[in-house]
Design goal:
The chain is an alpha+beta fold and 629 residues long. The termini are far apart.
């Protein structure tokens, strides 16, 4: 009995010992095999120190691959305080080279940390300074690659692009909206040290940074430069408060150019006020559109079969009474009897009030809503405003009447460009966009609404607006042998007291080309120009004309003689095309070149050449040199 108990105890002790041994072996196996990576990583973290190697942000390029924003490689100063033996001497040497305060540098060096980034004075150092530091071969002093933004065109497209901070993080514009995509993954140089921070004699490990994704814009840099050049000249010439310009593709919603003045240089954004650097006026600024909004009223009325612009007439006395209000035309005595094509040409307010009253508030505001007013367009930029419309239940006859000619409501420049693009492209409202691809991910045009108006309505509106440029208030945008349509706007500004300000206007022009099949829509607005007649046709239309001329040159657009001829007035500059007079006699030449001055060179009887060449367009009464044989 006793022996059995003894054997049982020995067996239990053996089994327990075996179990303990198995547990130990399993633990060893678990640590050596299963937990190895985790424990090894923890051990490495205790021994290793990482010095950051900054990744480059992705570039920003235009639609043709031209770089607008890239990066400059610079150097950052890092310290490992535990490795610096002579702290005072090191602080003195570094502060002398960098040019900062000795005590501030000593504070960095004596800081109780494993790695100290010298910020901000040690950031983005140029190679000259970096070479001087490197030549000292100081212990515990490291120079590592950093990157900062290089805005190649200074102020150009600044409100769209935005700017970055000292840590290369996006702070506004595209830099902020697409910061995640533009930001790369930083690399590092990993070294090993003991508990006191002394460097161990083990090889370094270099982890290469991964640069951010490049972003391609819908912007055409050549068109952008042309727009900004024309806008800047006008802004300076008229001492304007602000200026806005947009060029958009009518059939896709792609923004080819966008500019807001005053602008800023993203490299030195700290030198500008918050109001300037954070307000992209093209999408942010709300203001009364004035007569450019009449395009919406016209399209709505035609589409509802309320008006036949060729046959229906309106007699303008210079004013129209609506309820208790009397609304005036810009021409005090009125325009008299007009067809509605002439109402559009003359930008006659009472004529558009009449159209608005015929439409009624439900139909007019339904079209206004369909064309995207009163809400964001959805462009891929931050800071877009919605505009301000009358609430429909608050709209009486007077509010309906003023809305019909663009007064009493507020819109943004981009809303107008987007809506007019829909009107002239056949009735499709596109979401405007400015980023065409991020890395390999390409965007496609996005349709917000189709068939807002019919193609027939669109064609009639295009004809009327081409007539505005050929015969009406938009004549200063006319380009001979090119078909331009458009509408001027002269909107009085409202002051802080809620009343209209005297002599303070936003002068605008919105136009499209070619008028019969629009590809490009151009919008120009000049806020409170000085020393000039306050009409959009006088100030903004000529700027738009110059922008269209640049577009013609950039895209090599061919002439089209099928458009409406310009009805010249006494003060208009007329142009004449030099006909082919080669082989003619001097007598025949004089008959052929009426309206031009002729200077003969030689005494022959046949023309062999002209200067300027034949088919060249010259101003009336220009001198043409005729070379005889």
């Amino acid at each position: 009995m006793f022996q059995n108990i003894q054997n049982k105890r020995i067996r239990n002790v053996f089994l327990i010992s075996l179990l303990i041994l198995l547990l130990v072996l399993f633990k060893i196996f678990y640590i050596q095999v299963i937990e190895y990576k985790k424990l090894n990583k923890l051990a490495n973290e205790l021994w290793s120190r990482n010095l950051t190697v900054q990744a480059d942000r992705g570039k920003i390029l235009d639609r043709n691959g031209k770089t607008i924003v890239d990066n400059i490689t610079t150097v950052g100063l890092y310290l490992v305080p535990s490795q610096i033996k002579n702290k005072e001497e090191t602080a003195k040497l570094l502060s002398n080279i960098i040019g900062n305060d000795y005590n501030e540098m000593l504070r960095h060096i004596t800081k109780k940390t494993s790695i100290e980034r010298v910020h901000p004075e040690g950031r983005n150092l140029n190679y000259e300074i970096a070479n001087k530091i490197n030549a000292l071969n100081l212990e515990g002093v490291y120079l590592l690659k950093e990157s900062k933004r290089n805005y190649l065109y200074d102020n150009v497209l600044s409100h769209v692009i935005g700017y970055t901070g000292i840590d290369n993080q996006g702070l506004s514009g595209l830099e902020l909206k697409y910061d995640k995509e533009l930001t790369g993954i930083n690399g590092s140089i990993k070294y090993y040290s003991d508990g006191k921070g002394n460097r161990l004699d083990l090889p370094e490990i270099y982890e290469q940074p991964i640069n951010g994704k490049d972003i391609y814009l819908t912007i055409d840099l050549d068109v952008q430069l042309a727009l900004e050049n024309e806008l800047n000249q006008a802004y300076t010439k008229y001492n304007a408060e602000q200026a806005i310009g947009i060029v958009m593709k009518a059939k896709t919603g792609e923004i080819l150019a966008m500019s807001s003045l005053p602008s800023f240089n993203p490299t030195n954004y700290q030198n500008y006020s918050e109001e300037i650097i954070n307000r992209n006026l093209a999408i942010w600024s709300n203001y009364e559109p004035g007569s450019t909004f009449k395009i919406v009223t016209l399209a709505s009325a035609i589409n509802e079969n309320i008006v036949n612009i060729f046959e229906d007439h309106y007699y303008d006395t210079g004013k129209i009474k609506v309820a208790s209000a009397t609304l005036h035309c810009w021409k005090h005595k009125g325009h008299g009897d007009q067809t509605y094509v002439q109402v559009v040409e003359n930008s006659c307010n009472p004529g558009f009030v009449n159209l608005g009253l015929k439409l009624g508030k439900d139909k007019l505001f339904d079209y206004i809503n369909k064309f995207g007013f009163g809400k964001k367009t959805g462009i891929d930029l931050s800071g877009e405003a919605t505009g301000i419309l009358f609430k429909k239940d608050k709209v009486g006859p007077v509010e309906l009447a003023t809305t019909a000619f663009g007064q009493g409501i507020s819109v943004t420049a981009l809303q107008q460009v987007t809506a007019v693009s829909a009107i002239v492209n056949g009735g499709t409202l596109y979401t405007p966009y400015i980023v065409s691809s991020i890395g390999d991910d390409k965007k496609t045009p996005s349709i917000k609404r189709e068939n807002i108006i019919t193609k027939e309505t669109s064609d009639l509106v295009k004809y009327a607006l081409e007539s505005v440029v050929a015969n009406g208030s938009g004549r200063n945008a006319y380009i001979e042998n090119y078909r331009i349509g458009g509408k001027t706007g002269t909107a009085q500004k409202v002051g802080s007291n809620g009343k209209y300000m005297s002599g303070n206007y936003v002068l605008s022009f919105i136009g499209f080309m070619p008028a019969d099949n629009p590809e490009y829509v151009v919008y120009i607005a000049i806020d409170h120009p000085k020393g000039v007649t306050q009409y959009g046709g006088v100030v903004s239309a000529p700027i738009a004309k110059d922008v269209f001329k640049n577009i013609i040159s950039i895209y090599n657009i061919k002439e089209d003689t099928n458009g409406l001829p310009k009805s010249y007035r006494w003060n208009d500059i007329k142009y004449i095309t030099i006909p082919n007079v080669i082989g003619m006699s001097p007598k025949e030449v004089k008959k052929e070149l009426k309206g031009l001055k002729v200077e003969f060179i030689g005494n022959g009887e046949k023309v062999i050449d002209t200067l300027p060449e034949i088919n060249t367009r010259v101003k009336e009464n220009s001198t043409i040199k005729i070379l005889l044989n």
